[in-house]
Amino acid sequence: MTSELLLQARGLAVDRGGRLVLEGVSVGLFAGEALVVVGPNAAGKSTLVRALAGLLDPTAGEVRLLGRPLGEWPRDARARVLALATSEEEGPDALQVAEMVALGRYPHRGPFRPLDAADHAAVARAIEQTGIRPLAERRLGTLSAGERQLATLARGLAQEPRVLLLDEPAAHLDIGHQLQLFRTLDEVRRRGVGVLAVVHDLARAAQWADRMLLVAGGRVAAEGPPAAVLGSEAASRAFGVTIRGHAVPTLAHPFYSFEQGP
Predict the structure, then answer these.
(1) Do residues 42 and 32 make contact, with C-beta atoms less than 8 angstroms apart?
(2) Residues of 137-149 as b/e, b for ≥16 C-beta within 10 angstroms?
(3) Are 222 and 235 in contact (CB under 8 A)?
(4) 20, 43 in Cβ contact below 8 A?
């Protein structure tokens, strides 16, 4: 991780349907960093990710990408720098997995220009990184939810972005694919990509994140190293549970237990 600030939100507020879902949220993402967003259901986590990606216009505040206001970026130029993958994305059932992944190259080539050698290499690399080579010729309509999730991630990786935003990337994945997912994201981070991910599994998030952002009631309730955030009173209040970290000599990270009631 370096000190290069890739993405920044300042005083971000988002209104959806007359309800203020986010208010006064400020956060930055640095090159090579793993920043995990956690929080209870309906806290505003997905809204934050979509606002950072430019899919939702803020009511107040701003988002800057590489120091430039996000709204000033042409769509294709922004997509060459920032990629978003969510657990809810769909695609035509008849589309092959390799074709879906290749969509990640359109910001570099445009929709009507054929892929060149560099594009094909980026697509192949993304497929290998996510472990979906056996699925490459399958139709999306034949995939499980977890397989679709991996294909969506591969498409984002094929964009070769500097910023990767993920909303519940481990949703629908079994434990083996979860481990592969986070290994892949670590490889991406080593190339200087900043990764911001919404993760519901607090223990998994604590093991992987460099920094954690706790969102509750549309506001930032805590931010910092995972152990400090999960050990805070704010985390216990937000989730309505008692969170305890237990040091284990053979593990690099604490083991966390959760008990009902703060």
Answers:
(1) no
(2) eebbeebeebbbb
(3) yes
(4) no
The model's pLDDT over 5-54, given as tens digits with 9 standing for 90+, comes to: 999 999 999 998 889 999 999 999 999 999 999 999 999 999 999 999 99
Domains of the chain with CATH codes: 1-81+163-180+187-262 (3.40.50.300), 87-160 (no CATH)
Q: Check residue 226 and give its pLDDT.
A: 94
The alpha carbon of 143 is separated from its chain's Cα centroid by a whole number of angstroms, namely 22
On the CB side of 48, CA atoms within 13 Å amount to: 35
Query: Mean pLDDT across the stretch 254-262?
Result: 75
Mean pLDDT, range 228-246, rounded to an integer: 90
Residues 6+ apart with CB under 8 A from 28: 5, 7, 8, 9
pTM of the model: 0.92
Rounded Cα distance between 156 and 153, Å, is: 5
If you write DSSP's letter for every residue of 117-166 in order, what string do you get? HHHHHHHHHHHHHTT-GGGTTSBGGGS-HHHHHHHHHHHHHHT--SEEEE
Q: How far apart are CA 208 and CA 193, in angstroms?
A: 15
Q: d(Cα 3, Cα 259) in Å, to the nearest integer? A: 37
Q: Tokens at residue 119, please?
A: 């594009």
